[in-house]
Amino acid sequence: MEEPPPPPTSAIPNARTRSYWRWSKQDFFPEPSFQSFTTYRAALASACPRLRDRLLSRSSDNNELNVLPQASENPMRRCLTAWDLTWLAFGSVVGSGIFVITGQEARTDAGPAIVLSYAISGFSALLSALCYTEFAVDVPVAGGSFSFLRIELGDFIAFLAAGNILLEAVVGAAGLGRSWSSYFASMIKNDPDFFRIRVNSFQEGFNMLDPIAVVVLFIANGVAMSSTRNTSILNSLSSIVTTLVIVFIIVVGFVHGKASNLTPFFPMGMKGVFNAAAVVYWSYTGFDMVATMAEETKNPARDIPIGLVGSMSMITVIYCLMALALVSMVNYTQIDVDAAYSVAFVQIGMKWAKYLVSICALKGMTTSLLVGSMGQARYMTQIARSHMIPPFFALVHPKTGTPVNATLVITLLSSIVGLFSSLDVLSNVFSISTLFIFMLMAVALLVRRYYLRQKTSQEDLMRVLGCLFVIIASSAVGTALWNANKLGWIGYTVAAVVWLIGTLAMSFLPKQRTPKVWGVPLVPWLPSLSIATNLFLIGSLEPDAFWRFFLCTAFMLLYYIFVGVHATYDVEHQNSQDFKDVKPTDEPNHAPFVT
């Protein structure tokens, strides 16, 4: 069954008569709570009951599909096929990470077993991709994980996820822009800072201005803003070229490979393999951006499973083969951690091939920027449709069919960060956000299958929550024991058995919902395994990642308490004549809040 298309422009009040470029206060804060200082003060006085309302509130498939898109005033265009989605996922995921991280982790953590690290991370990413696929087929909207979590886990959890996604998107785009500049400068004059401008009066780490990074970000985002279809075609062509270069690297690696370089296969043991798996996982991130393009997919039920699951399976195989080619060509102790593949080609007498690797990495970063800018803007669009951020950013341009306002603000933010911040500073900002959201997506899928409002009994609900608690707790305890290196295999076995019991118990509970078209197989086993693997990878990260996560979450909570909770509360309860007197237990109204 194909999902209904977005509402036509003619169905949206004032969509044809109002100019797209408008800047009034009403376009940014149309909610009753922000009409005057008096109404805002009254809203703050009711912050506690409103926060309780938001914590308990959940959206619905219909609200995300048919109501919220009206805030954009113009529909996005359904122009993407399975072919487009496959190459969009490839372009988003296969950036410079595989060329940089592989050598680093093979040398310091895993040795030749880096192949297994990529297989483990790829399996975990594939499990997450399966969860995303079921949601994107059932609810093909631009919001991706934000919309999916809002439906199953509520507004508050969705807001925390959305805030971390947008932060990672801005920092990630800025980092890609700086990396692009470094690679390009190294090719021109073997100096990554060749095009940067030093300002001695600025603090170290922020004193190397990078205008090339800004130019690259504006060009990539400008292309993404102009047309979804044209961006997809450009990405497909460049990704096919990348694939040919990767095939060349793999073939040459196997031809010049030596079996002796693969021994010892586990020089740092299994702990090194898993530590490397947590790091190389970042080479797989980006596929979630493709889920945000479901609203622009011609046939979501057919195209999304092929595009997402197919591309992630292909990428996992490619990464494992590339890693195997590297450790076959060069002994892991002799791998250059800064330019593994380029130096490896020099060592086997193919000096010219290092330029091919650099061009491939440069192109990979370019497509990652293109697809990333598309996905980031669509995340922001759906978040703005819900009024968690100003609805001005939800508007879709009538000519391009793309969210121009959302793309522009992300471009400006990432350009400012990229202009001033060094790669060292940006690398320290990476966090547990992506793995945390992937874990939440698996939890949300289990909730979707086993809990249905107004149908599931209180007794069954408590059983579902109990099973989820056992699955999450056992996964967390097992991860903690592994990292603390305590109790050995006895502790790991006990944690695994408890996880098995929790998952088995859930498998006997009655399912309340079946997928509309396509569903994750082996539920609850695969989503439960996704929870375990993501928590395990989270536990392998450095403490700095957790501090960054908690600090950023604290700032997000302040914004939510002072702005987000009141805007979304007003939208849900807009039909009340006196919004201040609405009780938090009232049934929310999901009618569109047209600005």
From TrEMBL:
InterPro entries to which the protein is assigned, alphabetical: AA/rel_permease1, CAT_C
Annotated GO CC locations: plasma membrane
Listed Pfam families: AA_permease_2 (PF13520), AA_permease_C (PF13906)
Family membership: Belongs to the amino acid-polyamine-organocation (APC) superfamily. Cationic amino acid transporter (CAT) (TC 2.A.3.3) family.
Keywords: Amino-acid transport, Membrane, Transmembrane, Transmembrane helix, Transport
Domain of life: Eukaryota
GO molecular function, one term: amino acid transmembrane transporter activity
Species per Swiss-Prot/TrEMBL record: Arachis hypogaea
Membrane topology summary: Multi-pass membrane protein
Cell compartment(s), UniProt: Membrane
Name this polypeptide is given: Cationic amino acid transporter C-terminal domain-containing protein
Residues of the Cationic amino acid transporter C-terminal domain: 518-567
Residues passing through the membrane, by range: 85-103, 115-136, 156-177, 233-255, 262-284, 304-327, 429-452, 464-483, 489-510, 517-539, 545-565
